[in-house]
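Quick one: structure tokens for this chain, please?
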Amino acid sequence: MLAIGGAGVTAILGFVMVFVITAWFGNPLPVFGFDQSPEQPIAFPHTVHAGGEPILDADGNPKLAADGTPLTGIGLDCTFCHRTVTSTNVAGIPPVETCVTCHRVIGSIQSEPLTILRTIGLGDNPGPIQWKRVHRLPDHVRFVHEPHIRFLTASENTDVIANRDESAILAGTNPDGSVMPAVTCSTCHGDIKTQTQVAQVEPLKMGQCVDCHRKNNAPTDCTTCHF
């Protein structure tokens, strides 16, 4: 009994240590509510809205239109919905009216997510969608999107854009050599246009931010990021 109990205690302590270590250096294990990809009140597939690749069904087969042609994502720019990301500290969550503008007429009436959306946005008491936050920083951390987007979109900074291959960067490069804002989002958020359900893929820890600032000659004094 003592041996079994000792083994159990060792296993529990080992799990706690693994959880603390992974949470400290990266993303915590997806247990006890520490899920880096929470279920949203309405399924919003970025693969359909922001992606441009063929849309796959649950079995991995391409979805087909009524005429038999493969359906693809419509390739919306991130700033179409997150309209303040280039000008303020927050990216901005689109109001339900933005979604309903399109989906009032676009999309099957048999779609459960769209039925929920239309009920919220077109019902007798329309209200906001209660999206669950995926990316969260401590309250004492100040992160302003605008200067980061401004820096990453500058023509001389394309080599610091992460989680995006060279061909995608070139496809999103303007004639003057600058990069469209949507191309840069992957640096911190991962390639969201390939995600059916948004998940946090980068640890977003202090060390990661400091390393990036040092690499790009950005300020690293405490007041830059902390209140």
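The chain has a mean pLDDT of 88.
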